[in-house]
Design a protein that fits this description.
Elements: H1 2-22, E1 35-39, H2 84-91, E2 110-112, H3 123-128, H4 140-154, E3 163-167, H5 172-178, H6 186-206, E4 211-215, H7 224-229, H8 242-265, E5 270-274, H9 276-285, E6 294-298, E7 330-332, H10 340-352, E8 356-357, H11 360-371
Parallel strand pairs: 1-2, 1-3, 3-4, 4-5, 6-7
Antiparallel strand pairs: 5-8
Helix pairs in contact: 2-10, 6-8, 9-10
């Protein structure tokens, strides 16, 4: 009996020693991005714009019913709830990005420099062409300047291996503003807008950015604003504005060409392209599949009819203090911006269903690999 107990003790001790040597003593935690820096316009802005500073026709973002679905109050987001950038933060287990202009915020996990109404082309260009009445004096390059100032205040650049840069769709405002001029040609606007976006992207890369997601334009011709301003004869297979969607498509094609060139010029960085137009299109082709019964009608608008949109009585104004009872069934929130439900679907298509190339998983995988170097 004593021999059996001694043998069992030694076998147990040997097994413990072998097991302890076969297991890592300090396993590495799963790598995730720890910071996001975001740029863009109202599709990405999480609060830099207020009613007093926003575009005139949509100058009520601080009023209800903005924010009614998720936050239950206005957070100065142009939606009833969260945006794609918010769903990205959720996906990466990071807090929502505070707006840069809220200077007392906690910026330990990044900042959002996007501004509603901002443009790709500098404000001075529009002032020169006498179309600056309703234009927010902020461009994507203004946001880059803010980023530089922010880094200087924080004492230097972040750990780029753990930082993700999000460049939200940029250029839609430029094309909308150019309608006010008879001298600005579409090809000219496209060349200037994409060139500025390219310069902005290269500016981030020169500052050391290693991981970047760049959004293309959505189907701007499917927004109620575009549909209300174009004749019924100007329609494509989706029953959206053919002319406006062609404009966005041409912008996206040129932008993707520039992104591909930047990938070659900066091979040690990963630049992903989020195909907003394709994601938007797949929803508009079969909205019911994604839970939408109102693909064109404005949830928070006025005027009734197919679009429920009046440019002079928009969401949050005294004339429109209530939204539709179920925003999740609507693609469009206020005539230009989308509902949280639509942003959720677009985010899922981006992050899990191949509408972002390279995928988010590739970016995360590359980031893990770099950490191990």
């Amino acid at each position: 009996m004593a021999k059996s107990s001694s043998l069992l003790f030694h076998l147990t001790l040997l097994l413990t020693l072998l097991t302890s040597h076969s297991l890592p003593t300090n396993p590495k935690p799963k790598q995730r991005f720890t910071k996001i820096y975001a740029f863009g316009d109202s599709f990405t802005d999480t609060g830099n714009t207020h009613s007093t500073t926003g575009p005139y026709s949509f100058g009520y973002v601080s009023s209800p019913p903005y924010g009614t679905t998720f936050f239950h109050r206005s957070t100065n987001r142009y939606s009833d709830g969260r945006l794609v950038i918010d769903f990205l933060a959720n996906t990466l287990s990071l807090p929502f990005l505070p707006p840069y202009l809220s200077r007392n915020s906690d910026f330990s996990h990044g900042a959002n420099f996007a501004v509603a109404g901002s443009t790709a082309i500098e404000y001075e260009f529009y002032a020169k062409h006498n179309i600056s009445i309703d234009i927010v004096p902020v461009s994507i390059m203004t946001e880059l300047g803010w980023f530089d100032k922010f880094l200087k205040e924080k004492g230097g650049a972040p750990d780029m291996e753990k930082t993700l840069f999000w460049v939200g769709e940029t250029g839609a405002n430029d094309y909308a503003y150019s309608v006010m001029s008879s001298t600005l040609l579409p090809d000219q606007m496209r060349g200037l807008a994409v060139n500025n976006v390219n310069n902005f992207l290269e500016g981030l890369l020169k500052r050391g950015a290693k991981y970047m997601i760049v959004e293309g334009l959505p189907l701007t011709g499917c927004l109620p604003l575009a549909l209300s301003l174009t004749p019924s004869s100007d329609r494509d297979a989706l029953n959206c504005s053919l002319k406006v969607n062609k404009q966005s498509s041409a912008h996206n094609s040129l932008l993707l060409t520039r992104v591909q060139a930047l990938r070659k010029a900066y091979p040690h960085s990963v630049i992903s392209y989020a195909d907003y137009s394709a994601a938007h299109r797949v929803v508009m082709q079969n909205p019911k599949r994604y839970g939408f019964t109102e693909p064109y009608k404005t949830c928070c608008g006025s005027g009734g009819g197919k679009l429920n949109f009046d440019l002079f009585a928009t969401c949050g104004s005294p004339a429109v203090s209530k939204a539709c009872p179920d925003p999740a069934r609507y693609v469009n929130w206020d005539g230009v911006h989308l509902t949280e439900g639509m942003y959720r679907v677009v985010s899922d298509l981006f992050f899990r269903h191949g509408y972002m190339r390279p995928s988010l998983q590739v970016l995360l995988g590359k980031s893990k690999a770099d950490e191990g170097k």
